[in-house]
């Protein structure tokens, strides 16, 4: 994404609205600059990284909690992170699919976003399905921070903590059905706008519960107005303004006038900066002593808060009074807007300048701050029980939580070894993940610059993946770790399933795009068996189904300790997978040579060609990735791995392979039979 | 699960795939001497068969049948999240394009 700025940055704003992003849309804004392509690739890399991190967070929180740390005892921040990463897991694949389609449109000649049957509306659906949950993805951790800071500084438990968690979960679910309120003025069906009006109003209700519960936490509390508490309280106040002003936008009538003006700018920033960033700054102050072992200067912290709060409100509140001023303009000729804009400018300088105090304070305190001790705020969560800064192994003894929520420490932590290091940090020091990331970057950059660069990236990637696969590291598991409701599910298997959850969204969005475009094409879609030959599709279906059988039989052989049986199964699965790809490439070749391309000249065929090649291409890449895995598994099986108790890797591979099979089970009828 | 179950499931999967192809070629109606089914009915049956096949692969080959429900819920949650996109998007179409 950063590189894209050097070769022609994407200039359509963060929403990347189609068809402005198309290479040949015919308008003045659409561009052939490579920045768009690098930007799309940057998004692909980012979503890949986010998905991997989400899997990591989810498995860690669900499988590796301290003994007795039931979900009901988890701090609100941990809860919000868990819910947030689930949202990331399910929202970001939509952006991934959209970015890949955008890249294909610009570089391979597919026509998704330039077709009248797809175009703007298709992109808007794909983008905002990700885009609105994204707002809450940014917000929820901040709410969790406030929920952790408040009990410490009000010296009483968070009021209605259970209901706050339930509200956050409800808001997370509803956030996936509100994306259409970003499309009220696109001319979509009135029924759709009604649905989204109701869902948008509905999503505000859980936030009401959260804010009321947090305000209630101050009743009869012995409040200590330290800097983290001030930022937390300020965040709640600003979020209330941001939330209430957002409810107006749920109305189609009001949204029609307000959406393009400064009302939205003010509302959005009251939520994202006021509600979220202020809380995050509070979190920075709250955990600074824990991270560094030093206290910051409290007086400067309070001045920082006062200036930030005043500056923020001066900056954004005036915008509510100029709701008729269009956003995204840098100059204007309406004199009535001038005083409010001048006030906002003054506020911007105060708010921005105040942040200098934050950095100066934290920088200076790093060396000169008073020693913090392990628990300077008298907090009650587990991090305050370890020294500041915490040792690499965190806990010298295992924290155990009893039924009434009290914590006892007993027995040495398996992560702790006496010389001050830890098993976990020693075993996780690895250069391979960095190399894998670099290889992915080089490989994908090659798609824009040169095939040779892509090949270098591919070779580097295979080498890095192989090296990472051969590396042994052991993440010690506490035998009595709390892991309900996944007590009997190994963490690697859970990780694979969580990853497959994101894959479900990815392929569903691709299929959704296909269905969306096809429904709009109407009767011009090719007749059954005229372009996509049933025999070929049927053969490929049987091939993949058979490969699923051999994969699952391979697991049986592995569990039984039969090396030859496992090898035979893996080789057969490899041959069948390769056969699938050969058959598919022959079919592609025939289709191309018969004129079935996404060339604009082939008016009736470019729509089915676009959907067919992109969807089956994405599936084919997954099959190819599976074949690479099988080659690796075969090489290790020859050395005697994966037998009896060591068979879990074969099972994990099978989960992926069967998923790829399931995707084809739907592609076959959708393209060949219907 | 033993290998016999896997073979039975495989047979069902292949059989239902053949059934899908027969349906689209109207071979089943001729065999049963029925009048041809409407395209909507045929499409619905074919998609239902695809759904059944996917469920069989997930339940038996991926062993979800023997796993805790919480594990299945991770995938079901994903499906739950995506269903509104797939359905509501279509509701937009009649007004916009026709």
Question: Summarize this, please?
Answer:
The complex is a heterodimer of chains A (674) and B (98). Chain A has 674 residues and is an all-alpha fold. Chain A contains 18 helices and two strands.
Q: Estimate percent helicity of chain A.
A: 55-70%
Strand order, sheet with most strands of chain A: 1-2
Query: What separation lies between the terminal Cα atoms of chain A?
Result: 40 Å
Cα Rg of chain B: 18 Å
Give me the number of helical elements of chain B. Answer: 4
> How many H/I helical runs of chain A?
18
Strand content of chain B: under 5%
Q: What is the 3D shape of chain B?
A: flat
Order of helices and strands of chain B: HHHH
Principal-axis shape of chain A: globular
The secondary structure category of chain B is: mainly alpha
Largest interface: A-B, 68 and 50 residues
Largest sheet of chain B: none
Round the mean pLDDT of chain A to the nearest integer and report it: 91
Please give the structural blueprint.
The complex is a heterodimer of chains A (674) and B (98).
Chain A: H1 35-63, H2 76-107, H3 119-154, H4 161-174, H5 190-216, H6 227-247, H7 252-258, H8 262-292, H9 298-316, H10 338-368, E1 397-401, E2 407-412, H11 423-428, H12 432-446, H13 451-470, H14 491-521, H15 534-560, H16 563-593, H17 606-638, H18 648-673
Antiparallel strand pairs in A: 1-2
Helix pairs in contact in A: 1-2, 1-12, 1-14, 2-3, 2-4, 2-14, 3-4, 3-6, 3-8, 4-5, 5-6, 6-8, 6-9, 9-10, 12-13, 14-17, 14-18, 15-16, 15-18, 16-17, 17-18
Chain B: H1 3-24, H2 27-32, H3 39-61, H4 69-97
Helix pairs in contact in B: 1-3
């Amino acid at each position: 994404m950063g590189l894209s700025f050097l070769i022609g940055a994407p200039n359509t704003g963060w929403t990347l609205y189609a068809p402005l992003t198309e290479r040949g849309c015919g308008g003045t804004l659409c561009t052939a600059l490579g920045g768009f392509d690098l930007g799309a690739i940057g998004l692909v890399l980012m979503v890949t990284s986010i998905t991997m991190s989400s899997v990591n967070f989810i498995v860690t929180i669900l499988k590796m909690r301290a003994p007795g740390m039931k979900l009901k005892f988890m701090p609100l921040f941990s809860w919000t992170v868990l819910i947030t990463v689930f949202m990331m897991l399910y929202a970001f694949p939509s952006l991934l699919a959209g970015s890949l389609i955008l890249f294909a449109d610009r570089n391979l000649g597919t026509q998704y976003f330039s077709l009248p049957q797809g175009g703007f509306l298709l992109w808007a659906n794909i983008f905002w399905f990700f885009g609105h949950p994204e707002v809450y993805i940014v917000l929820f951790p901040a709410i969790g921070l406030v929920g952790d800071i408040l009990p410490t500084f009000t010296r009483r438990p968070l009021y209605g903590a259970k209901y706050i968690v339930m509200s956050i979960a409800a808001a997370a679910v509803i956030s996936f059905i509100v994306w259409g309120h970003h499309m009220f003025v696109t001319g979509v069906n009135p029924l759709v706008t009604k649905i989204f009006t109701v869902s948008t109003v509905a999503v505000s209700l859980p936030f009401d519960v959260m804010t009321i519960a947090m305000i209630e936490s101050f009743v009869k509390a012995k409040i200590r107005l330290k800097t983290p508490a001030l930022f937390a309280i300020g965040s709640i106040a600003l979020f209330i303004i941001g939330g209430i002003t957002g409810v107006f936008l749920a109305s189609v009538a009001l949204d029609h006038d307000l959406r393009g003006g400064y009302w939205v700018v003010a509302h959005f920033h009251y939520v994202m900066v006021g509600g979220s960033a202020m809380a995050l700054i509070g979190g920075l102050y709250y955990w600074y002593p824990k991270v560094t072992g030093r206290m910051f200067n409290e007086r400067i912290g309070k001045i920082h808060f006062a200036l930030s709060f005043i500056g923020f409100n001066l900056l954004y509140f005036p915008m509510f009074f100029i709701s008729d001023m269009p956003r995204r303009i840098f100059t204007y000729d309406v004199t009535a807007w001038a005083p409010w804009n001048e006030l906002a400018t003054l506020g911007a300088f105060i708010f921005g300048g105040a942040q200098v105090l934050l950095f100066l304070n934290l920088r200076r305190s790093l060396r000169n701050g008073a020693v913090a001790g392990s628990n300077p705020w008298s907090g009650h969560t587990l991090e305050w029980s370890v020294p500041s800064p915490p040792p690499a192994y965190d806990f010298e003894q295992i924290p155990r939580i009893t039924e009434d929520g009290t914590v006892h420490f007993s027995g040495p932590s398996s992560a702790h070894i006496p010389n001050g290091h830890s098993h976990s940090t020693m075993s996780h020091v690895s250069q391979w993940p960095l190399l894998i990331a670099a290889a992915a970057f080089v490989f994908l950059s090659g798609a824009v610059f040169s095939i040779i660069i892509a090949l270098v990236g591919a070779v580097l990637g295979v080498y890095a993946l192989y090296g990472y696969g051969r590396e042994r590291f052991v993440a010690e598991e506490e035998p009595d770790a709390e892991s309900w409701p996944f007590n009997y599910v190994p963490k690697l298997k859970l990780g694979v399933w969580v990853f497959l959850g994101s894959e479900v969204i990815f392929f569903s969005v691709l299929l959704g795009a296909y269905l969306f475009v096809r429904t709009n094409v109407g009767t011009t879609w090719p007749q059954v068996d005229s372009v996509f030959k049933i025999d070929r599709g049927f053969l490929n279906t049987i091939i993949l189904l058979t490969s699923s059988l051999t994969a699952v039989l391979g697991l049986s052989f592995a569990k039984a300790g039969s090396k030859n049986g496992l090898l035979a199964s893996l080789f057969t699965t490899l041959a069948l997978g390769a056969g699938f790809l050969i058959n598919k490439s022959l079919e592609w070749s025939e289709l191309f040579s018969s004129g079935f391309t996404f060339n604009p000249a082939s008016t009736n065929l470019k729509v089915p060609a676009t959907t067919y090649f992109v969807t089956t291409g994405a599936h084919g890449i997954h099959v190819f990735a599976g074949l690479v895995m099988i080659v690796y598994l075969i090489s290790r099986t020859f050395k005697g791995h994966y037998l009896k108790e060591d068979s879990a890797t074969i099972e994990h591979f099978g989960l992926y392979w069967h998923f790829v099979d399931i995707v084809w089970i739907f592609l076959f009828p959708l393209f060949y039979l219907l | 699960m033993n290998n016999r179950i896997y073979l039975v499931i495989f047979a069902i999967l292949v059989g239902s795939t053949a059934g899908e192809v027969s349906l689209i070629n109207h071979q089943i109606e001729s065999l049963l001497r029925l009048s041809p089914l409407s395209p909507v009915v045929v499409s619905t049956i074919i998609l239902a068969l695809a759904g059944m096949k996917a469920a069989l692969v997930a339940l038996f080959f991926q062993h979800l049948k023997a796993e805790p429900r919480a594990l299945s819920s991770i995938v079901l949650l994903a499906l739950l999240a995506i269903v509104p996109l797939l359905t509501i998007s279509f509701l937009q179409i009649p007004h916009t394009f026709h």
